[in-house]
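Translate structure to sequence.
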């Protein structure tokens, strides 16, 4: 695991940081939000000025009106300002959601990339929690925490500035409650952050337990432990409930303080009117301003809650995102190095014609699995190699080490073994070339969800449709697709549901054979095939010209005893 996953950094400079919000098109969205805040402030001041003008022009109780014509133009201006504030708030919500979703879209890709590269905890429950709860916390901070600050703070600042210039007592009556609330926020924020961390920790444990329980459902039922597991889930869930209630106490207090501050501003203006410092028209205009800022003030009360939830998620996500970004850069560097050294697959094939036999076929050297050194393997094209062991799990570990160990660019130096396929160093090659070198079909690896066309061409997504149809016909799936009527668009999910195991095995074989890779890896595939499927597999393997690396409980069903060579991977030299 990369060292960047250590969340306990010594200094702020060493601590992994979240990807920047100020990036790409998000810069324009952030500037637009600040502009919308200023626009709302200007419109609010226009409303206040218009209200003051309208009410100041009204006759008093003892005065005789000289002009009974309503000031339609001024009233129209007030209506336009009110409508403008509403439109600005509407646009603010749209831009805020766009900003938050754009940021989370980018980070979700990093999160899945990290999981695929074995970075961090790969438990299904943990990954789902991060992709849902933690990224939701990030999105809420961006869209509902950061955005109110960008719009409400300029709005309040502009209004206070104008009030300070035009009417200092009113400015003080509004600023004092707001300032007192701001002074209390740092202390409350620290408490909210700690409680948000507790909720996130308990929620992650609960999700992991639920995922593990559901995955082990059959075992739980066989053991008669359903009630026991449900009780365990209840215990984990109750901790989440208690921690959430504790968090609500502090976040509710923060929201209550912001609402109270807005009410105190209103009370302060009323007191000034009672003391005769401002007249009735002035009270109405100031109340209009306070009404405009009341909504943003209420949203500012949620900022601390969103911020602390964000920080709780950040402690886990930032190191993962940092490692995912390092992987992305390393992959690009690997691809550039491959092109610079002119190690393309076609060139390797051309050069292999003039090299020794050791540079053709498959070469596996210095392979170590579970601290046990395996004998080297040199296989020529056309050979069939049985990966032999008394433990099927060890066979899987060997194949996984061959095909996956050393592919993570951050851990490439940790792979001590050598794998060459047709003269190409497998671990050094970019992914676009590796998928052309190896086709694998395993009963232990589930299919992804998608159409038959997508699943068949998963290794080679640019494969022509005619080639896809040809390979599906070769493995005997054409009649099934014809019956389905949807053909290549037939949708499968949950590891090939609703097809039979034999048909799913045929599909796995088809995707492994597509493009005629020089190495074909079959892991107990024959165990899922019926008799017709076994006959098809024998026929396909007879026609296949590359190297076959396979495992089987009954290899004689595929080849006669003299038709394959055993590779003992139990560590016995």
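Result:
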């Amino acid at each position: 695991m990369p060292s960047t996953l250590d969340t306990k950094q010594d200094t702020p400079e060493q601590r992994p940081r979240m990807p920047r919000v100020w990036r790409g098109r998000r810069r324009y969205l952030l500037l637009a939000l600040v502009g919308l805040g200023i626009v709302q402030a200007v419109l609010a001041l226009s409303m206040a000025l218009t209200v003051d003008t309208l009410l100041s022009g009204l006759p008093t109780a003892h005065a005789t009106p000289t002009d009974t014509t309503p000031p339609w133009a001024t009233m129209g201006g007030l209506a336009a300002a009110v409508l403008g504030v509403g439109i600005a708030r509407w646009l603010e919500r749209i831009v805020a959601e766009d900003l938050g979703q754009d940021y989370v879209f980018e980070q979700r890709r990093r999160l899945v990339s990290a999981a695929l590269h074995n970075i961090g905890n790969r438990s299904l429950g943990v990954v789902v929690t991060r992709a849902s709860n933690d990224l939701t916390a990030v999105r809420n901070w961006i869209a509902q925490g950061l955005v109110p600050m960008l719009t409400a703070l300029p709005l309040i600042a502009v209004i206070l500035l104008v009030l300070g210039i035009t009417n200092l007592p009113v400015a003080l009556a509004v600023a004092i409650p707001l300032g007192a609330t701001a002074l209390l926020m740092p202390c409350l924020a620290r408490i909210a952050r700690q409680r948000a961390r507790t909720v996130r920790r308990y929620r992650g444990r609960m999700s992991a337990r639920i995922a593990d329980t559901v995955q082990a459902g059959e075992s739980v039922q066989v053991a008669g432990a359903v009630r026991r597991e449900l009780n365990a889930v209840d215990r984990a869930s109750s901790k989440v409930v208690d921690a959430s209630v504790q968090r609500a106490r502090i976040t509710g207090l923060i929201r209550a303080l912001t609402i109270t501050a807005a009410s105190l501003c209103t009370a302060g203006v009323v007191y000034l009117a009672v003391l005769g410092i401002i007249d009735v028209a002035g009270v109405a205009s100031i109340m209009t301003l306070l009404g405009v800022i009341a909504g943003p003030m209420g949203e500012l009360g949620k900022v601390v809650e969103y911020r602390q939830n964000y920080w709780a998620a950040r402690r886990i996500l930032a190191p993962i995102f940092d490692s995912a970004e390092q992987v992305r850069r390393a992959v690009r560097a690997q691809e550039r190095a491959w092109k610079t050294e002119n190690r393309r697959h076609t060139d390797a094939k051309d050069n292999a014609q003039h090299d020794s036999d050791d540079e053709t076929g498959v070469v596996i050297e210095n392979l170590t699995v579970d601290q046990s050194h395996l004998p080297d393997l040199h296989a020529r094209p056309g050979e069939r190699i049985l990966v032999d062991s008394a433990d099927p799990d060890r066979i899987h570990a060997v194949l996984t080490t061959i095909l996956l160990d050393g592919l993570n660019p951050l851990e490439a130096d940790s792979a001590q073994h050598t794998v060459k396929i047709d003269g190409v160093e497998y671990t050094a090659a970019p992914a676009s070339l590796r998928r052309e070198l190896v086709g694998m079909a395993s009963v232990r690896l589930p299919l992804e969800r998608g159409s038959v066309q997508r699943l068949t061409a998963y290794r080679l997504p640019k494969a022509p449709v005619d080639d896809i149809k040809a390979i599906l016909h070769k493995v005997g799936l054409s009649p099934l697709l014809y019956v389905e009527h949807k053909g290549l668009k037939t949708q499968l999910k949950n590891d090939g549901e609703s097809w039979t195991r034999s048909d799913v095995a045929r599909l796995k074989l088809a995707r492994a054979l597509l493009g005629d890779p020089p190495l074909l890896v079959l892991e107990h595939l024959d165990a899922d095939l019926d008799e017709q499927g076994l006959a098809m597999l024998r026929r396909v393997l007879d026609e296949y010209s590359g190297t076959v690396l396979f495992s089987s409980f009954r290899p004689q069903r595929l080849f006669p005893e003299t038709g394959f060579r055993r590779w003992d991977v139990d560590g016995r030299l």
